[in-house]
Every structure is written in structure tokens, then in C-alpha cells.
Design a protein that fits this description.
By secondary structure, the chain is of the alpha/beta class. The protein contains twelve helices and 13 strands. Bound molecules: adenosine-5'-diphosphate and magnesium ion (MG). Homodimer.
């Protein structure tokens, strides 16, 4: 890995100005600013009375959920998965049956992870996705519910099992994974229903990943763009070229360094190489690229501007980095919909991800807002 480091700023501040509007974002986003609390240590989402300038904020079928949010929500459209972990000494040989040392099934999937993260950060969050009519579907539904995610648009489909993955953790530290796409990849209507597109159009921000069909993402991103709702696409998930038809409706593309390399066919070991790969993304049609660089931090590239860099917020102990990327992207989206500046969004996300790597698992490791703010305030 080439050596480069991003300087670590200790300052976390709240600007009293409305953050500049990212490219392609509408006025709808601009007025979704914060009520700044007199105590600047707290985020206070915009109050319902202050949202009267927004067009229709009431979700069409909000009657389904008496607790529907009044702030334009974060809407995550994506995958939900049951991750079946088995701890083994080695992989079985052909025809062989072996015993695992332990086994555990946890809710996961990038979509579900990011939805829980948004909700745990106290931002009203809807999850739009599909599970099968099986025990894994129940497990995921409970995990999302437990995380406080609005589930009005989580569908149970009868034609496919809930998406699941068998994660074989081997003694030598290697992981081998088999994924069953199930309801994440199948049984989507060819044309996404108006109800689902309505929640997307009324969102404050939409978050997508690549664990559901591109055709679904394209329809969602297009609906969001038409309504002036910003879209962040986390590049994690399937390793296939990104359709231009999708990229043209995406405001911010967020890959980690290896995803950036695969998507562009370029090396991403040094900051210079990363910048060049990002330029390729601009050519592919996206104007902002949020690159996650593991323990090297992150950077937001905006076409025509100097990159905004963010070092990691160092963790006293790094226990498990699973879900760090999902936490980072979701936390960034939350700060952005709350009209934070780009640098503040990066720092908020870095703090959330730093807390995430200190706890085992994906969903269990996602921090709440209070702990993120405490970390940002700490000397
Ligand atoms: N060892 C670490 N200590 C603190 N923060 C970390 C560490 N590793 C990752 N992070 C944070 O998590 C973010 C996402 O992690 P990264 O590995 O880049 O994503 P992904 O999980 O998609 O590969 C990083 O940008 C960084 O802010
Ligand atoms: Mg990584």
C-alpha cells in the first residue's frame, strides 16, 4: 500500500450557515437545514412547523404507520440478508462433512445495515426491500424493528427465500463466503410500484447499494432525481460494471479503495492514483465521489474542487471492521441531510465508523447519535 496520510483535524464545529448545496441537489435540500440548538453540542432535526415550505412532506400511505416522521426521512433501498457464520478449522474437502466449532446467524445485508445505522443515529429512516416468508425474514424484520427503522415498505415475497450468506470463518483467518441472492435479487416487480417511488420522492436523501438488481436502483434513483432528492450510491455489493443509466442519477458515488479500483480498472494504492481513478468516475457521469480508505480515512472528491480529506478518528482498540463502510456511508448521509458542511459530514461519518470498529458484528456495532457526538466533543 502506498504511503499517504490524511491530516487529522480535532475540531468539530457547527457552522451557522446553511451548507453549500451539493451538485444536482435541489432547493428542497437547501431548506432542509437544521434548527441549531442554542447548545451547539446537539443535533436537532428540523421541527415539523419549520417544514411548511417543503412540498408534500406527508407520505401518501403514512396512515399505515402512526409514528411516521415529520422530517424528510432517509430512505434506504437495498438488501437484507441473514449472515450464517460458521467457525471451522478448514474448508471441507469434496464429499466430506465436517463439524463447525460454532455457528451463529445474524441479520445483515448492506441495505439493512445502513438503514439501522441511520435510525440509530436518530434520523427517521425507512427501509425499502424484500425478504422471503421464512425464519430468516423474521430475524431481519426483528433486527430492523429493534433498530427503530420504519418498515412500511419492507415486503415479504413468497417466490424466493430471504437472501442469505454462509460465512466460513477459518482458523487461519481466511473467510470464504457463499451468497444466496434470494429475495434481494429476485421477485422485484419489473416496474417498481408507485407507493415505493412515492416514499423515495418524499425522502430527504436516498441511499442505495449494489446488492439488489441494477434495474431497481435505476428506477429509484431516477424517481429521486426527478423529485430533487439527492442519491448516494454505495458501490459495495455485486462486482459488475456500473450502468451509466444508474450513475447519471447518482449525486454521490461511494466506493472503498478496492471497489474504486475494480470499477475503474485503475490502481488505487496512492492518493494520486485514487485521484486519477476518481477522475475516471467523473467521466462515467458522477460528479462527487466519497472514497473510504480503511485506516487511512476517507476523502470526498467534488469535480472541479480540491478534495476534502478526513483522517480516521483513532479507535483505542479495533475489534472488528465489519460494517465500518456501511456505518460510514449511512452516517455521512445523515449529516448531509441535516445540512452539515462537507467536512462536517466526513468527520461525523469517521466518528461513527470509529465507534463501529470497536464492537463485534455489523448491526450490533452501529453507534447511537449520543456516542458519536460525545466522541466528536472529546479532546
Ligand atoms: N482501524 C480503524 N480505526 C478507525 N476508523 C476506521 C478504521 N478502519 C476503518 N475506519 C473507518 O471506517 C471507514 C470505512 O472503512 P473502510 O474499510 O474504508 O470501508 P469498507 O468497510 O467499505 O471497506 C473508514 O473511512 C474510516 O473512517
Ligand atoms: Mg475496507
Amino acid at each position: 500500500m502506498g504511503a499517504f496520510s490524511l491530516s487529522q483535524s480535532k475540531q468539530w464545529h457547527y457552522s451557522s450557515q446553511i451548507a453549500p448545496i451539493p451538485n444536482n441537489l435541489s432547493i428542497k435540500q437547501e431548506i432542509r437545514n437544521f434548527n441549531f440548538n442554542p447548545n451547539p453540542n446537539q443535533f436537532i432535526p428540523i421541527s415539523p412547523q419549520k417544514t411548511t415550505r417543503l412540498p408534500s412532506l406527508t407520505l401518501t400511505n403514512s396512515s399505515k404507520n402512526p409514528n411516521s416522521p415529520t422530517s424528510p426521512p432517509l430512505v434506504v433501498v437495498g438488501s437484507a440478508n441473514a449472515d450464517i457464520y460458521v467457525e471451522i478449522d478448514r474448508l471441507p474437502k469434496e464429499g466430506e462433512t465436517i463439524s463447525a466449532k460454532s455457528g451463529e446467524t445474524l441479520a445483515g445485508g448492506k441495505g439493512a445495515n445502513q438503514a439501522v445505522c441511520g435510525s440509530k443515529l436518530s434520523y427517521p429512516t425507512y427501509f425499502v426491500g424484500q425478504v422471503g416468508e421464512d425464519a430468516h425474514g423474521k430475524l431481519i424484520t426483528e433486527a430492523l424493528k429493534g433498530g427503530g427503522v420504519y418498515l412500511d415498505y419492507l415486503r415479504n415475497v413468497s417466490g424466493a427465500p430471504t437472501g442469505h450468506a454462509v460465512v466460513m470463518l477459518q482458523s487461519d483467518g481466511q473467510n470464504s463466503i457463499i451468497i444466496v441472492g434470494g429475495a434481494n435479487m429476485n421477485c422485484w416487480p419489473q416496474k417498481i410500484c408507485d407507493e415505493d417511488l412515492e416514499v423515495v420522492k418524499n425522502a430527504g436523501i436516498v441511499l442505495l447499494q449494489r446488492e439488489i438488481p441494477d434495474s431497481v436502483n435505476i428506477q429509484v434513483a431516477k424517481a429521486a432525481r426527478t423529485a430533487g432528492v439527492p442519491v448516494i450510491l454505495d458501490a459495495g455489493g455485486m462486482d459488475a460494471p456500473l450502468p451509466r443509466e444508474l450513475l447519471k442519477f447518482v449525486d454521490i458515488l461511494s466506493p472503498n479503495e478496492s471497489e474504486l479500483s475494480r470499477l475503474t480498472g485503475m490502481r488505487t494504492e496512492t492518493f494520486e492514483q485514487i485521484s486519477q481513478a476518481v477522475s475516471k468516475c467523473y467521466e462515467m457521469g458522477v460528479k462527487q465521489v466519497l472514497v473510504k480508505l480503511g485506516d487511512k480515512g476517507s476523502a470526498l472528491f467534488v469535480e472541479g474542487e480540491e478534495p476534502f480529506k478526513q483522517a480516521i478518528i483513532s479507535a483505542p482498540k479495533v475489534l472488528d471492521t465489519t460494517g465500518a463502510g456501511d456505518t460510514f456511508t449511512a452516517a455521512f448521509a445523515v449529516a448531509l441531510v441535516e445540512s452539515k458542511s462537507k467536512q462536517e459530514c466526513l468527520k461525523f461519518a469517521a466518528a461513527a465508523a470509529s465507534l463501529c470498529v470497536q464492537v463485534k458484528g455489523a448491526i450490533p456495532s452501529m453507534p447511537n447519535r449520543e456516542s458519536v457526538l460525545n466522541l466528536l466533543q472529546s479532546p
